């Protein structure tokens, strides 16, 4: 049960050169300040930005721990909890020596939450799968082109050109020499 729910805007990971660290730290510190000024005695955070916003787990945890540790309350705020939301995050924190209490386990969630769907695909794995589908589609198109008799001469020219270019980079002058033998390679 909670008396207050705070929402904070958190940054998306954009490579680390867009003040993401500072913005994430500010999100924690602002929420801590609001909770403290509202007279809250405790506050629980999920690991901000580590899910769909793309922060690496170790970076997100490091910013969270540093921000929470650096905060100096002026009122009643005396307990701050960092909630781990999956096995990976829980194990990550345990491996770094933090005490992690199991409050709700997966079986409880499965039995009590109708919306729980095991095997939910995360955004990163969905993007990876979409990328792999694109690569597979491109490879199939290339294979079809290579096997099409209308394009055999062009494919052979490209293959010889690639070999000549690669050899030319490895052995100066050899690429020019190999291009003289293109008709030989096509036979």
What is the number of strand segments?
A: 2
Question: Percent helix among the residues?
Answer: 40-55%
Gyration radius, rounded: 28 Å
Neighbour order of strands in the largest sheet: 1-2
Instruction: Give the averaged pLDDT, no decimals.
Output: 77
Q: What is the helix/strand order?
A: HEHEHHHHHH
Amino- and carboxy-terminal Cα gap = 79 Å
**Overall spatial form:** elongated
Major pleated sheet:
2 strands, parallel
Structural class: mainly alpha
List low-pLDDT spans.
118-124
Beta-strand portion reads 5-15%
The total count of helices amounts to 8
How would you sum up this structure, described in words?
- This protein is mainly alpha-helical.
- 55% of the residues lie in helices and 5% in strands.
- The chain contains eight helices and two strands; from the N terminus they run αβαβαααααα.
- Strands 1-2 form a two-stranded parallel sheet.
- α2 links the parallel β1 and β2.
- α1 packs across α2.
- The N and C termini lie far apart (79 Å).
- About 4% of the residues have low confidence.
């Amino acid at each position: 049960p909670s008396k207050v729910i705070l929402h904070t805007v958190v940054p998306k990971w954009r490579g680390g050169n867009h003040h993401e660290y500072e913005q994430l730290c500010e999100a924690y510190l602002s929420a801590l300040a609001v909770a403290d000024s509202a007279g809250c005695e405790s506050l629980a955070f999920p690991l901000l930005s580590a899910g769909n916003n793309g922060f690496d787990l170790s970076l997100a945890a490091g910013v969270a721990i540093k921000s929470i540790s650096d905060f100096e309350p002026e009122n009643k705020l005396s307990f701050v909890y960092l909630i781990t939301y999956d096995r990976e995050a829980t194990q990550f924190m345990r491996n770094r020596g933090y005490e992690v209490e199991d409050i709700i386990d997966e079986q409880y969630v499965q039995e009590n939450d109708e919306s729980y769907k095991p095997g939910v695909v995360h955004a990163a794995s969905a993007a990876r799968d979409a990328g792999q589908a694109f690569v597979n589609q491109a490879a199939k198109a290339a294979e079809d082109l290579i096997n099409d008799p209308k394009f055999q001469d062009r494919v052979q020219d490209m293959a010889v050109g690639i070999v000549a270019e690669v050899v030319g980079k490895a052995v100066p002058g050899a690429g020019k020499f190999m291009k003289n033998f293109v008709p030989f390679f096509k036979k």
